[in-house]
């Protein structure tokens, strides 16, 4: 079991890798109809392994409403992971994929040097929308690759005392996800049955993040509900999860990502100049391709008046 987690006050300072902390998320509007709960990045903890962005959305009643309507927009330098608990979203991208995603299925898009996509609830969507959108920062060796898309309708599961684990990314207990990633990573959906504590063995070389999707659970002695992320530092070997009723949790992990990043809008880069070029090519070039859908593509926001700085995984800015 990891050391007793610390609950951070509002607007906390960055934390060290030696302590577990509970990070409260904040609400962010996404598109015209959706509000998400942003769990990463935050000031005290920008990344968990190469996981550099986590948005949780719902559960939201979208009956009689459009649901998610995110028009075509660009990405570079990252992979996107879409994971649904309820609902349906249709992914369309500039490589030519048109893929519906449903609960328990994995959409993994690798932007590489550049891709664009849209994420839309279909007209006949289910009444509830609930899920996660996550980003994985690509290492320098992979961020210039050609864009690609993977859809995995079935994922392996591992039976655990007190529940089960779906292996979304990486490997657990000798079971491997088919998803292709470019750094040592893990993503699991856990389901507890409340019959006994669920004991999850951890790779001590990884740092981890834990969030609740449905229900509530106590994780390493800390009450955890939807809307927050528990950060668990490297060196931890075990998580104990207890719940008075069945609950669903999501666990991310990975080796600490040491490459500094510049994150702005939908781009993960290394320098200010790379972001400027990506924005210019989205506005006026053909680097990101065209998404075939009815929605007009999103314009890029204006760049800030100051130079964008590369930051390490702790949030410290680095010399230009």
From TrEMBL:
Pirin C-terminal domain sequence ranges: 192-288
Species whose genome carries this gene: Motilibacter peucedani
UniProt keyword Ribosomal protein, yes or no: no
Required cofactor names: Fe cation
UniProt KW Metal-binding keyword: yes
Domain Pirin N-terminal, first and last residues per copy: 36-136
Cofactor binding note of this UniProt entry: Binds 1 Fe cation per subunit.
Source domain of life: Bacteria
Sequence positions that bind Fe cation: 73, 75, 117, 119
UniProt cross-references to PANTHER family, sorted A to Z: PIRIN (PTHR13903:SF8), PIRIN-RELATED (PTHR13903)
SUPFAM superfamilies named among the record's database cross-references: RmlC-like cupins (SSF51182)
Name of the protein described by the UniProt record: Pirin
Signal peptide: none
């Amino acid at each position: 079991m990891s050391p007793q987690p610390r609950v951070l006050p509002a607007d906390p300072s960055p934390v060290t890798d030696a302590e577990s902390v509970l990070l409260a998320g904040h609400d962010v509007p996404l598109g015209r109809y959706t509000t998400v709960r942003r769990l990463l990045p935050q000031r005290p903890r920008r990344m968990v392994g190469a996981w550099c962005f986590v948005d949780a959305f719902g559960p939201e009643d979208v009956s009689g409403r459009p649901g998610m309507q995110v028009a075509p927009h660009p990405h570079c330098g990252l992979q996107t992971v879409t994971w649904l608990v309820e609902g349906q979203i249709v992914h369309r991208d500039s490589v030519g994929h048109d893929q519906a995603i449903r609960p328990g299925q994995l959409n993994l898009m690798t932007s590489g040097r550049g891709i664009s996509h849209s994420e839309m609830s279909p007209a006949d969507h289910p009444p509830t929308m609930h899920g996660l959108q996550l980003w994985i920062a690509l290492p320098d060796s992979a961020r210039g690759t050609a864009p690609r898309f993977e859809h995995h309708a079935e994922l392996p599961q591992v039976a655990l005392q007190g529940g089960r684990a779906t292996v979304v990314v990486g490997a657990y207990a000798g079971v491997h996800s088919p998803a292709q990633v470019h750094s040592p990573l893990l993503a699991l959906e856990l389901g507890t049955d409340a019959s006994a504590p669920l004991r999850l063995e951890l790779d001590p070389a990884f740092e981890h993040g834990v969030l609740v999707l449905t229900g509530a659970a106590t994780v390493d002695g800390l009450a955890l509900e939807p809307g927050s992320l528990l950060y668990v530092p490297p060196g931890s070997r075990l998580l104990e999860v207890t719940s008075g009723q069945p609950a669903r949790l999501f666990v991310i992990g990975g080796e600490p990502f040491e490459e500094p990043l510049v994150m702005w809008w939908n781009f993960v880069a290394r320098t200010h100049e790379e972001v400027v070029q990506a924005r210019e090519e989205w506005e006026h070039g053909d680097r990101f391709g065209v998404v075939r859908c009815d929605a007009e593509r999103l314009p890029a926001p204006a760049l800030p008046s100051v130079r964008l700085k590369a930051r390490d995984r702790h949030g410290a800015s680095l010399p230009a």
